[in-house]
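Q: Start with the shorter request: fold the first protein.
A: Done. Sequence, then structure:
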Amino acid sequence: MMKLLQSTGEMSALEPQQLNNTKKAQHDVVFFNRVPKVGSQTLMELLRRLSIRNDFGFHQDRVQRVETIRLAPEDQAALSAMVSSYEPPSVYIKHVCFTNVSSFGLPEPIYINLVRDPVERVISWYYYVRAPWYYVERKIAFPDLPLPDPKWLKKDFEQCVLSGDRECRYIRGEVREGIGDHRRQSMFFCGHHMDCLPFNTAGALERAKRAVEENYAVVGVLEEMNTTLTVLEHYIPRFFKGASDIYFNEINRFNPINKNNFKPPVSEEIKEMVRKNFTKEIEFYEFCKQRLHKQYLALKLNEKKP
């Protein structure tokens, strides 16, 4: 973690308030525009339990037949108005690209999210949408939905990559609309702009980084949940006080959420092949991880001050 900072002077200049966008919020509402397959179900359950302990409103989007993560300007405005309508303190949770609420003349909420190693995440997503229980849940919610092709359900990720199947070809600059573009997490930070559509491009990456830096209070990292919870507890205490206690003693200990036992292991060789096409996604993940480390280190340095 220390290697991320260039000098002792830079370390000593770190202050939690300098790295905390919570102070920019004009409305005591947490907006969690959750990325799929990064542990967001677990964080959602954590927030639900914390809402009882810490006395705040808990709101989440309903299950949708077709989930749209990119919105037209009028739908962004409607979403922003809804987020602003919740009585503070509250949280609102939805799978959606970053929506700049203040750009519609409404008070800025507190933005949070999670990220995960992008290749591990895309593998997780691949098998998640093929899990039997996923389709049972979908059928219960929407009985008229047709069942998928059994050949598609049985398709192995490694063979999908090796055969050059379109589903597992991650081509720079390619544009896919709809649910197929859940392959990348940076889109959930980049926003609704057309520049966010092409896969693995510098323009989309820079927009995503800028949103994190300027708007998000905390972007946690699934692989570093202890650090993530510590930062959330200190940077957004009104909502996350006691988060580590609930997570480690209740949720993670007894009830791992959304674990897919149907996901087979994928070889490191295949993962490395995929990584070559995920350069911007990996850079974005490392950027978020470095920012989280800085926030954590600022807390530790502040604790040591006389």
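Q: Next, the second protein, separately.
A: Sequence, then structure:
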Amino acid sequence: MPTYNKLVRDLIPQIIEETGKEYSTRVLAPKEYLLELKLKMTEEALEFNEAEVQKDAVEELADILELVHASLAVYGVSYEELEQIRLSKKEKRGGFSDGIYLIEVEDE
């Protein structure tokens, strides 16, 4: 039996069960859950980086967004609050839409 030891979407056990396969799961403690959310976010970001076609890239972005929502719930922050923080940072420092790539800055 393959061992995964990773955070999965909530319906994965049900999907496995429907195949008739045996499996084991456990519910993570809050600190473990946050750690696993961060690890999963890294995994999904790497998959986004490796995606070669738009459809795959957008699916990885959807996974990342789902992890953002789960992480916000752990921190007790609403998506609206996150959006306000994003907008505030964008107002102060700009966004990333212009594709500016910094090469170097003179030392003092």
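Q: Describe the second briefly.
A: The two ends are 59 Å apart (CA to CA). Helices lie at 12-18, 30-50, 54-75, 79-93.
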